[in-house]
Specification:
The chain is an alpha/beta fold and 277 residues long. Helices cover 42% and strands 14% of the residues. It has 9 helices and 8 strands.
C-alpha cells in the first residue's frame, strides 16, 4: 500500500532540509527534535491519526557551533526570515523552523533568547526539556518526502526517551494555562510509548536520570508521567483522546496510554540509579 503524506508534512520536511543545507558546517551541532523526530521513530504507530506536522524543531549544542558562518547570516542568505520570537525562522510557504538551545546551556540573562557567543541572543531560543536530546541521540539519514527532491543529510535525531522527556516538560509548562495545551502532544507521547518496549525505554530514562546535563529535567518528566500518565482519566491520556477524536475508541486510547506508562515506570523503578549501583 502506498502511503501519501499530507502536503504540509512534505513542505515541513522540505524546509527542514533547507535549513540543514543553510547551516552547513554547523550541522554537527544539530539534533532534530519535535514532531519530525517523533515520526522518524514511530511512523503511524498503528494509530488512526496520520503523522503530520507544519514546522521543524532543532536543538543546538552550543559547544559544537563554529564561529563562521554566522548563523543569522547563513539563514538569511538561504531565504529564511526571522520571526517575532527569538529562534523562530520562516522558510518556504512561511513554514517555521525553531532553533533552540537547552536552558541549561543557554547562558545567563534574558528570558527567551539563548546567549550564544559570536552568534548573538536572538538566533536561537532557550528551551527547558531539551537537555536529554544532546545526550540521547543517534545519526539518521534524513530524506525529502517529495520524490523530486534528492537531498539527504545525515544528522543526529533525539532518541525516544529524550523526546518523551521533552514532551512531558512541554505539557507540564502549559498545565496552568490550559488554552495553550495541545492534544497532539499527548498523542505524540502515546506514539513514543508504543514505539519501544518498556524495558529499553526505561533503561534510557534511567541513564538520562544519571546524566549530569539531563538529570534534572528527566527526573521531573518521570514525576509528570507518575502524576498525569498512569490512569486512563489522567491529563496525558485525555490529551491523546482529544487528539484522536472520533477516529478511534477513546477508552482504548486512554487505557493504552495508562498501561504503557505504568509498564515503563515499573521497569524504571526496578533499575538502580548510578548513585546506588
Amino acid at each position: 500500500m502506498t502511503v501519501t503524506n499530507p502536503t504540509e508534512y512534505v513542505l515541513a520536511r522540505q524546509v527542514l532540509l533547507d535549513v540543514l543545507e543553510a547551516l552547513g558546517p554547523h550541522r554537527d551541532a544539530v539534533v532534530l527534535v519535535g514532531a519530525q523526530a517523533v515520526y522518524l521513530h514511530t511512523g503511524d504507530a498503528d494509530l488512526a491519526v496520520a503523522p503530520t506536522t507544519t514546522d521543524a524543531d532543532i536543538a543546538l549544542a552550543p559547544d559544537l557551533l563554529h564561529d563562521e558562518p554566522l548563523l543569522e547570516a547563513a539563514l538569511r542568505s538561504a531565504g529564511f526570515v526571522p520571526g517575532a520570537n527569538p529562534g523562530t525562522w520562516h522558510g518556504t510557504s512561511h513554514i517555521a523552523v525553531d532553533l533552540m538551545v537547552p536552558e541549561a546551556l543557554s547562558g545567563s540573562g534574558g528570558r527567551r533568547g539563548a546567549r550564544l557567543p559570536v552568534h548573538g541572543n536572538r538566533v536561537a531560543r532557550r528551551t527547558v526539556g531539551l537537555e536529554p536530546a544532546l545526550v540521547d541521540n543517534r545519526d539518521h539519514e534524513l530524506q525529502a518526502l517529495d520524490v523530486t527532491d534528492e537531498r539527504t543529510f545525515t544528522i543526529r535525531v533525539a532518541g525516544v526517551a529524550a523526546l518523551l522527556v521533552a514532551k512531558a516538560i512541554k505539557v507540564k509548562e502549559r498545565l496552568d494555562q490550559r488554552d495553550r495545551l495541545k492534544p497532539k502532544d499527548g498523542l505524540d507521547m502515546l506514539r513514543l510509548l508504543r514505539a519501544v518496549e518498556a524495558e529499553p525505554l526505561a533503561r534510557d530514562l534511567r541513564r538520562l536520570s544519571d546524566d549530569p546535563l539531563a538529570a534534572g529535567v528527566t527526573t521531573e518528566a518521570v514525576a509528570i508521567l507518575r502524576r498525569h500518565g498512569g490512569e486512563p482519566d489522567g491529563e496525558l491520556a485525555r490529551l491523546a483522546v482529544r487528539a484522536v477524536g472520533v477516529l478511534d475508541d477513546p477508552d482504548v486510547v486512554a487505557a493504552s496510554f495508562a498501561v504503557l506508562t505504568e509498564e515503563v515506570l515499573a521497569a524504571y523503578d526496578a533499575l538502580p540509579s548510578a548513585a546506588i549501583r
